[in-house]
Design goal:
The chain has 265 residues and is of the alpha/beta class. Helices cover 25% and strands 20% of the residues. Belongs to the antibiotic N-acetyltransferase family.
């Protein structure tokens, strides 16, 4: 099945995305066939005045602490296999699992990318610089805290809640402490950073999310829009009520440690 420009334009209008900051999570394969692919999808958002923000994570820079620091409840049991390459925000390195749409944003000539060496975000649009300015190595989810993000929309395009990154910030809002990792950078040497936990169990939050979502079929893809502030509120409350609600298995150290409250410094 083909997805036409008019299908996308109609969804942007129906879901009230025009001129909004959009935290986008996208599986391009969900569309069927879209002429122009991810680049055309991005063009249509930008032509509607949207500011498009995507996670552009990369794990290649991860390295061991230069001081040999080990924190308790830090989401791993010594199993990290590390051969780091330095992070450079001017480069376009990206974890392949981020998907074709995130890669399209990252490769856009006007994109801005943050300096976080493992959990960078990239954005294009009129508010890109302002939204991204609040992230740093320790405030990894600062992009959800800017004034410009207050009326933002989290948009899921053909993906499940397991791919919705701001849920990690909801864990932090619920009182959990983010994990620490170290990363090699091209210009700052080795830096300590905060990162999120496992997202494989975020699907268990679907009953909470269904109360605040709006849906629209776009070709073969299902688009689901959530007001950012409402998403953070319902997910944080779910974590407060049941700290283990998103635990993916009994064998995941990240889920185990985050259920206990996260890292202990």
């Amino acid at each position: 099945m083909n997805t036409a420009d008019n299908d996308i334009k109609s969804a942007i209008e129906t879901l009230k995305l025009t001129d909004k900051v959009i935290f986008a999570h996208c599986a391009m394969r969900s569309f069927g066939r879209l002429e122009g692919g991810a680049n055309r999808l991005l063009e249509l958002f930008l032509s509607a005045g949207c500011t498009v923000v995507v996670p552009t994570f990369t794990y290649f820079p991860m390295c061991h602490s230069p001081e040999g620091i080990e924190y308790a409840q830090n989401g791993y049991r010594g199993e990290l296999e590390i051969d780091p390459s330095p992070y450079d925000a001017d480069a376009n390195d990206i974890e392949p699992s981020m998907g074709a749409f995130a890669k399209a944003v990252l490769n856009h000539p006007n994109r801005i990318r943050t300096e976080h060496p493992m959990n960078s975000y990239s954005a294009v649009g009129p508010l890109a610089e302002a939204v991204l300015a609040t992230q740093d190595d320790f405030n990894v989810y600062g992009v959800y805290q800017s004034t410009e993000a207050q009326n933002a929309v989290v948009l899921s395009m053909g993906v499940t809640p397991n791919s919705i990154t701001p849920i990690h910030y909801a864990e932090q809002l619920a009182g959990k402490s983010l994990f620490r990792r170290w990363a090699l950078t091209a210009h700052r040497g080795v830096v300590e950073t905060c990162v999120g936990s496992c997202s494989e169990g975020f699907i268990h939050l679907q009953p909470y999310l269904s109360t605040i979502q709006s849906e629209k079929r776009v070709g073969e893809s299902i688009w689901t829009a959530y007001p950012l502030e409402a998403l953070l509120e319902v997910c944080a409350q779910a974590f407060r009520t049941n700290p283990s609600i998103t635990r993916c298995s009994d064998y995941c150290p990240r889920c185990e440690d985050m259920a206990l409250g996260g890292v202990r410094i």
